[in-house]
């Protein structure tokens, strides 16, 4: 028998799937208001999506996750759309990681002037992503990079950030954050631009449905999976709040650089008279970002190559190398990331571009979540004969409560994502709206067009393994 996953292991895996130090500057930029946004994201997004994904994963545990659930509920057409959106949002997300890498690397080599150089950001993002891509063409090397890099560049820096942030607060008190009261913690909900931060906060939890694939492998899933959900989400909320609020205390909110994770470390280590450690830690974080890129490069591509092999994409996209790596998709996504990176050349200001890309990623992922929620509703009634090791508590009433909360959270996220944040310069607001609108429409329509004009010959050319 396969050894069951313990409750502790599931909690650790859940946090590892969507925990990232990269999100801390976004949290910090909202000040005390982030408490409101974080609580809303947990109640209207993280918890409902986790519970929905768990029921679907235990009912349809086949490899493929969301695509399998959507296919069971709505058929191959919409399963293909979901596969495509998951792949595309990862392209945008990896470009975002690459631009953050370029920013951190500039500070690590004592060249902060490069951070505002769009050409440097674009070129560095392209180069590092291509290096990681080529490394992953050899499967074993990619796995080693992901494992080693996660410890060096994610877990150690995140722990240090929390500890140093608390130390700085104890040492100097509340110097920049201001008093915590009703006015500082509750945003002006009549100011719609403020709600743009909600989308960014929700993105912290994007990907949490991935951990649900292990729901069948845990002891007593009916009892332990909800516990794992609440503990892992609670831990991420607490750690992000501590790290984000302490950063906001150390740095005036308008000076926070969204793509510069190293910024608070510079303040902490300089105050400790060991500023040289900042560069070392910066290089460690760069290693962590390489690990993130490496960990995610193959996943969406492996999903898409399976779709291609079912006959939905041309034979050229069905190619794998001797290590079973979907080489066509891996190279195609590297080219796409390079193209997206050119935004930094044409739109000045890394904060503006970074936020625009972050929100587009959130919109695309949110569309996927709408499909997942709808699949839960559909299959709750259409597939009553399919056994689930875990079911949303409360029967149909519980299911509807959870799905309504999820619909609200995802719907609000999508709507407010099209409203320019107060941090978007006035002369870039129209650019922001056009970028998010056109990007969303194009990426959603492309798979529908491909599906409509797919050819029977694509399926016939699949080589049997």
From TrEMBL:
The chain crosses the membrane at residues 35-57, 78-107, 119-137, 144-170, 195-213, 225-245, 274-298, 327-347, 353-377, 398-419, 431-451. GO terms for molecular function: transmembrane transporter activity. InterPro entries: AA/rel_permease1, APC_superfamily. The keyword Transport applies. It is found in: Cell membrane. Keywords: Cell membrane, Membrane, Transmembrane, Transmembrane helix, Transport. The keyword Transmembrane applies. It is a multi-pass membrane protein. One of its GO terms (cellular component) is plasma membrane. It comes from the Bacteria. This is Amino acid permease.
């Amino acid at each position: 028998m396969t050894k069951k996953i313990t409750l502790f292991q599931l909690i650790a895996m859940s946090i590892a799937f969507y925990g990232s130090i990269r999100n801390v500057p976004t949290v910090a930029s909202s000040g005390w208001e982030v408490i409101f946004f974080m609580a809303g994201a947990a109640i209207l997004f993280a918890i409902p999506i986790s519970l929905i994904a768990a029921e679907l994963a235990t009912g349809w545990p086949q490899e493929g996750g969301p695509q399998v659930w959507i296919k069971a509920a709505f058929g191959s057409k919409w399963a293909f759309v979901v596969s495509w959106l998951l792949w595309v949002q990862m392209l945008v997300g990896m470009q975002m990681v690459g631009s953050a890498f370029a920013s951190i690397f500039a500070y690590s080599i004592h060249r902060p002037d490069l951070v505002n150089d769009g050409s440097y950001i674009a070129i560095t993002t392209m180069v590092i992503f291509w290096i990681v891509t080529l490394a992953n063409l050899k499967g074993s090397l990619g796995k080693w990079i992901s494992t080693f890099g996660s410890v060096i560049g994610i877990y150690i820096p995140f722990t240090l950030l929390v500890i140093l942030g608390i130390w700085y607060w104890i040492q100097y008190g509340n110097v920049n954050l201001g008093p915590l009261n009703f006015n500082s913690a509750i945003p002006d909900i009549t100011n719609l631009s403020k709600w743009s931060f909600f989308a960014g906060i929700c993105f912290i939890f994007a990907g949490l449905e991935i951990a649900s694939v292990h729901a069948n492998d845990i002891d007593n899933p009916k009892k332990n999976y909800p516990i794992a959900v609440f503990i892992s989400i609670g831990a991420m909320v607490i750690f992000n709040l501590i790290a984000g609020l302490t950063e906001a205390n150390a740095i005036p909110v308008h000076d926070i650089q969204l793509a510069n994770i190293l910024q608070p470390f510079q303040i902490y280590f300089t105050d400790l008279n060991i500023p040289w450690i900042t560069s070392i830690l910066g290089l460690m974080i760069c290693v962590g970002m390489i690990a993130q890129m490496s960990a995610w490069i193959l996943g969406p591509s492996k999903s898409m190559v399976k779709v291609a092999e079912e006959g939905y994409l041309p034979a050229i996209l069905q190619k794998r190398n001797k290590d079973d790596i979907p080489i066509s998709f891996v190279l195609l996504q590297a080219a796409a990331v390079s193209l997206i990176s050119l935004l930094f050349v044409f739109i000045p200001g890394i904060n503006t571009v970074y936020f625009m890309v972050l929100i587009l990623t959130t919109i695309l992922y949110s569309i996927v979540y709408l499909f997942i929620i709808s699949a839960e509703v559909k299959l709750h009634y259409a597939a009553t004969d399919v056994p689930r090791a875990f079911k949303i508590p409360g029967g149909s009433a519980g299911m509807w409560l959870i799905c309504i909360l999820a619909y609200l959270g995802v719907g609000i996220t999508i709507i407010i994502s099209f409203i320019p944040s107060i941090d978007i310069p006035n002369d870039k607001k129209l650019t922001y709206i056009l970028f998010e609108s056109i990007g969303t429409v194009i990426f959603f329509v492309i798979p529908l067009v491909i599906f409509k004009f797919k050819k029977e010959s694509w399926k016939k050319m699949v080589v049997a393994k």
